[in-house]
Fold this protein.
Amino acid sequence: MLVGIQEAAELFRHGEVVAFPTETVYGLGADATNSSAVKKIYSLKGRPSENPLIVHVANPSNIEKWAVFSPKSRVREQLHRLESLWPGPLTVVLPNCQGFCREVTAGRPSAGFRIPDHEIALQLLEQTGVPIAAPSANKSNYVSATSVQHVIDCFGLDLPILDGGCSPIGIESTIVALHEDRAPELLRPGFVGVAEIQAALGDEVVVRENIRLHGETPDSPGQYKRHYSPRTPIKLFQKSTQNWGDLPGRVGVITFSLGVTFAHFPSSVSVVHETLSHCGDIHEAGKNLYTVLRK
């Protein structure tokens, strides 16, 4: 069911789950201090309990209440530098936090914070008055939701949904972890590039593969080997002319831009073609990616 901002805020305060829009993807949110509310998120999504959630707040001053900083904290200084990228598609994991229920952090002392760059989301966070823990509003391992219809397709009409239109970015936030004793670390690539983060920090960001198997506790969302997965098997090809191997009778082909031909396909194969961006724009492609993967 569709709800307004005031009703959504009231539902949050009463321990309910609400789907809400952000500039990246739709989130499935609950009060980050309410254990029973956050458990509903995991139950609805079928999400592994060891996979932590991102905490959404309205402004940087909200973080001071929940983060624990040591005297002359390097992390606090780096956080202030990264505030230039907020509101925006950046999540910052701080090493020591307090006040959140265990389900939000998966029992770890760290927590990830984000300030979304979406007017409706910010109004909702301001009116709610509590930090909102939220993963993407889809079933676990499936493709993220970037529209109200995507949320309904996953959860039906009974879930309260705050409609904010289609997500203008359409892919997840970048996640970076800050540490007192070592360089910042990229935990999940996303819309904000490493170079942009390094420029804001004035420091190097360590980039390494952070893939986790199910059953292992990840440092942040988006680290499991199987994630953001459509139900149809997908193969990635660098060139349209390379050997496609054995193909079923009907295939879907997703290309970044126009200009790809399929003359080399066997005549027995029916090809359904989707283009992420007709003009070859990387941002348009990102916005359309999850919608195309759901077709």
